[in-house]
DNA sequence: GTTTACCTATCTATCGATAGGGAGACAATG
DNA sequence: CATTGTCTCCCTATCGATAGATAGGTAAAC
């Protein structure tokens, strides 16, 4: 069943999610169509419906897969081997490399901005992503009780998400770097 | 010609922009259709095309109108009668009331997040919005040469835009307040 | 023989966009 | 005053493309 590739790509379902995520991160939920995905994956649109009956199912699956990947990438928020600053740097690095490697911003930033028009299951998955990431950041901030901790998780996540939008819209990655530096400077 | 209402709403073109903006801020560029707008305004979709031949025209017009409104709302960034903090508070207030009154986030945050899928004229209008707002904020920050100014315009705009997404997606306005407080605290 | 994973074929709804017509306002002309 | 032409702003009607979704068939795997 499971193939033996070096990545986690296993079967068409996984390929579908991969393609769908890329399109959603570029243009939002409406930017993906069953036909486009099918063509790119090499099957027919009816076969995409076999794996994900409704578009809302596909959207929720994409967000859940994305959430798991991000949480895995940022690592443990309470490992005493690294400092708060190192942990937040890791968080920033995940987004920085996503922008550099793929040229895409955070999936849940794109979808979160259009929450009001999203099918409920998708909106809930996006909300869960932010809840998880906020919790991770809170833990990362408070693990070493910290000296004069004033920065909050919401401030850090807000800054990062907004910086991606700003950099993308103005085609100026400097805004992201600038904001990232500000976050790190406010930590020690 | 010009009617005599108490607001600036003048004619169908203005009504179209109003409705289109509301839909775009809720669900992005693809969330508006000529038919929906027409129905809401009380005309036919062909008449919407009369005012805005292509959808890209409509999108660009909506963004330009929005840009002018925001810039007017935040006022002068270099009036020596108010402090830096007062100016930034005004900027925050504009977005806060937008979220409270309309339940909608910044138009250019929604569109900026899907920049890669936007018609060029719309993407350029969004980019111009951010350039203008960044310039406004830089001026607002540096007018009184400031003591230990470390906060940059990009950091403030990023935080605000991201905070709106975060608050909307999690249905928790506290995240916006939290971020807004952090911005103000970092200024003096 | 049941399940999995694809297929063909097709449905209805909606999209942006266009062609061409009509009613009213208005200015110029006689 | 009455007529004429033009311009604005809306209309009806329709086009082709694309959307999500479904019914039912097929071939291989277990």
Task: Give me the secondary-structure topology.
The structure is a homodimer of 188-residue chains.
Chain A: H1 11-27, H2 34-41, H3 45-51, H4 55-74, H5 84-102, H6 107-113, H7 120-142, H8 153-170, H9 174-185
Helix pairs in contact in A: 1-2, 1-4, 1-6, 2-3, 4-7, 5-7, 5-9, 7-8, 8-9
The first copy, chain A, binds a DNA duplex (30 and 30 nucleotides) through helix 3.
Describe this structure in words.
- The structure is a homodimer of 188-residue chains.
- With 188 residues, the first copy, chain A, is mostly helical.
- Chain A has a domain at 55-185: Tetracycline Repressor, domain 2 (Orthogonal Bundle).
- Chain A is built from nine helices and no strands.
- The first copy, chain A, has helices at 11-27, 34-41, 45-51, 55-74, 84-102, 107-113, 120-142, 153-170, 174-185.
- In chain A, helix 1 crosses helix 2 (34-41), helix 1 crosses helix 4 and helix 2 (34-41) packs across helix 3.
- Chain A is elongated.
- The relative contact order of chain A is 0.12.
- The model of chain A is unreliable at 1-9 (pLDDT under 50).
- Chains A and B meet through helix 6, helix 7, helix 8 and helix 9 of A and helix 6, helix 7, helix 8 and helix 9 of B.
- Chain A binds a DNA duplex (30 and 30 nucleotides) through helix 3.
């Amino acid at each position: 069943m499971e193939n033996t590739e070096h990545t986690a790509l296993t079967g068409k379902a996984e390929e579908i999610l991969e393609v769908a995520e890329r399109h959603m991160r570029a243009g939002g939920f409406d930017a993906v169509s069953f036909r486009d995905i099918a063509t790119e994956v090499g099957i027919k649109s009816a076969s995409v419906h076999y794996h994900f009956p409704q578009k809302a199912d596909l959207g929720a699956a994409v967000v859940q897969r994305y959430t798991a990947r991000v949480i895995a990438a940022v690592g443990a928020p309470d490992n005493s081997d690294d400092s708060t600053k190192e942990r937040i740097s890791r968080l920033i690095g995940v987004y920085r490399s996503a922008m550099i490697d793929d040229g895409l911003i955070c999936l849940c930033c794109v979808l979160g901005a259009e929450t009001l028009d999203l099918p409920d299951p998708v909106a809930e998955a996006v909300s869960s992503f932010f809840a998880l990431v906020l919790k991770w950041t809170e833990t990362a901030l408070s693990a070493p009780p910290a000296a004069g901790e004033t920065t909050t998780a919401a401030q850090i996540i807000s800054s990062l998400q907004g910086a991606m939008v700003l950099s993308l819209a103005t085609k100026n990655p400097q805004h992201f770097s600038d904001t990232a530096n500000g976050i790190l400077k406010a930590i020690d």
